Amino acid sequence: MPKTNFKAIISKIIVFYSVFYVIMKLIAILFEDAWILPNLILALPFLLFATIGGLLMKKEKFSWIYVVIGVLVISAIRYYEARWVVTLHEYFT
Questions:
Q1: Helices and strands of the chain, counted as H and E runs
Q2: Is there a contact between 67 and 11 (Cβ–Cβ < 8 Å)?
């Protein structure tokens, strides 16, 4: 049975998902008239995960801490995203 490096696989998934999320938020802001500031604020953690994950992939060193924090933060943001976008929009207007 071949050895599988789950840390590396999950880290790469987090990186690719984060990049995809940031690109989709930028497309929504530019072409779909989404609220700018709330969407940019919610995209910041994903941009941070994409940057850190890219550095980890470049060095080929993966961390369980990155995986656990990434999964928890991404899950929380996606779960509360609609509520937080409205709350942030109301706060800044």
A1: 3, 0
A2: yes
